[in-house]
Design brief:
elongated; alpha+beta; single chain; four-stranded mixed β-sheet; 41% helix; 4 helices; 116 residues
């Protein structure tokens, strides 16, 4: 029974890896598009982003929440809380980057979860 549970978790982790690879191909996460996103006027793009994040979150039971962090705007975006403006002094950027590094983030390589 323990082996079967471990096998299911392994399959779910493999599915997450495959899904995150597919996200990098999704035009909604194009780095130049994300960096030029105007949070005050680009309603259609933000709505599409919310929908994509909701679909991503619901694809795997191991995913509880997905935040897109836009360092230039000091915001996080997710489908449940919307756009959250961060206070730069209260939440340093360094607190977000280590979370992404667990998914193979390396400096200089774009990751779908962080746009700097």
């Amino acid at each position: 029974m323990l082996e079967r549970a471990a096998s299911r978790i392994e399959e779910q982790l493999e599915q997450i890896e495959l899904t995150t690879t597919q996200w990098t191909m999704d035009p909604i996460f194009d780095p130049s598009k994300m960096l030029s996103l105007n949070l005050n006027t680009d309603y259609h793009e933000i709505h599409n982003l919310y929908q994509s994040l909701m679909v991503m979150r619901n694809t795997n039971p191991l995913i509880d929440k997905i935040d897109v962090y836009l360092a230039g705007s000091a915001v996080t975006i997710n489908d449940t809380d919307g756009i959250v403006y961060l206070k730069r002094k209260s939440i340093p950027e360094a607190d977000y980057l280590p979370l992404v590094s667990l998914n193979g983030y390396t400096p200089g390589r774009w990751d779908p979860l962080v746009c700097t």
